[in-house]
Design goal:
Elements: H1 10-21, H2 25-38, E1 45-49, H3 55-62, E2 66-71, H4 74-83, E3 88-91, E4 106-112, H5 121-131, E5 132-143, H6 145-152, E6 161-166, E7 169-174, H7 178-188, E8 190-196, H8 204-207, H9 209-217, E9 221-228
Parallel strand pairs: 1-2, 1-4, 2-3, 4-5
Antiparallel strand pairs: 5-9, 6-7, 8-9
Helix pairs in contact: 1-4, 5-7
Length: 230
């Protein structure tokens, strides 16, 4: 990714991978919700677009899927290759066409916590639709629009680039409204099956009781499952 700091390169990638591996928001909240939306994958061809450190790729591979993981960060690709050794991990900028994936070659696409980093979401969704087989599914997660609004303030409808800290690094992403998330999927050729605003895993009640109680009332992630309408 190019002009903005929207990819987890260098130290940002190391920090992101460490946070994703630790007990917390990813492992006990967002990731279980995404896996629940995905469901059974045994024997399926699945692309993890924005695979990060390979945590989902490893879990999907262990569940029997034939996984291709794609990420723009050299650091995260290196980590993902070790974390998910049976998956095919490819370094590639998701803001560019994915010519290495054939038309109608995949049963499912996972896009966890990445779509808000992309500069041309409609082009990206068109690529997802292209590689999916008829009726294939897409599962995505992103930051909850109301959580971003509460954190950054201003107008909820101002879909601007925002910056958050990641340890000593910063990362940029686009604040999106809920209607934008849903309508862009529909306009790209998907049919929405389900939307969730996940609750934290019960294990977080033990490891992080204060955060657990906060997340029970203040949503921070949203997840969507849709299928290719082709």
């Amino acid at each position: 990714m190019t002009e903005r700091n929207r990819a987890y390169h260098g130290r940002a990638g190391l920090t992101f991978a460490a946070k994703a591996d630790a007990s917390g928001l990813n492992s006990l909240h967002e990731r279980p919700a995404v896996l629940g939306l995905i469901g059974a994958v045994d024997g399926l061809d699945v692309v993890d677009m924005g695979c990060g450190g390979g945590h989902l790729a490893a879990l999907l591979s262990a569940a029997g899927a034939h996984v291709t993981g794609v990420d723009g960060s050299e650091v995260l690709v290196s980590i993902a290759t070790r974390a998910a050794p049976t998956a095919t991990i490819v370094q590639h900028d998701l803001d560019r066409p994915m010519d290495f994936l054939a038309d109608s070659s995949q049963d499912g696409v996972v896009c966890a916590l990445v779509i808000h980093h992309l500069s041309d979401r409609q082009r990206f969704l068109g690529e997802v639709l292209r590689v999916l087989r008829p009726g294939g599914w897409m599962v995505l997660s992103t930051t909850h629009p109301t959580a971003d609004w509460a954190y950054f303030g201003g107008s909820y409808f101002d879909e601007r680039w925002v910056t958050r800290s990641l340890g000593d690094e910063t990362i940029e992403y686009r604040h999106l409204t809920m209607s934008t998330l849903v309508n862009e999927l529909v306009e790209a050729g998907f049919m929405l099956e389900r939307m969730i605003e996940p609750q934290p895993d019960e294990a977080m009640r033990i490891t992080e009781p204060e955060r657990y109680e906060q997340l029970r009332t203040d949503p921070i992630f949203v997840g969507l499952r849709a299928h290719a309408n082709k």
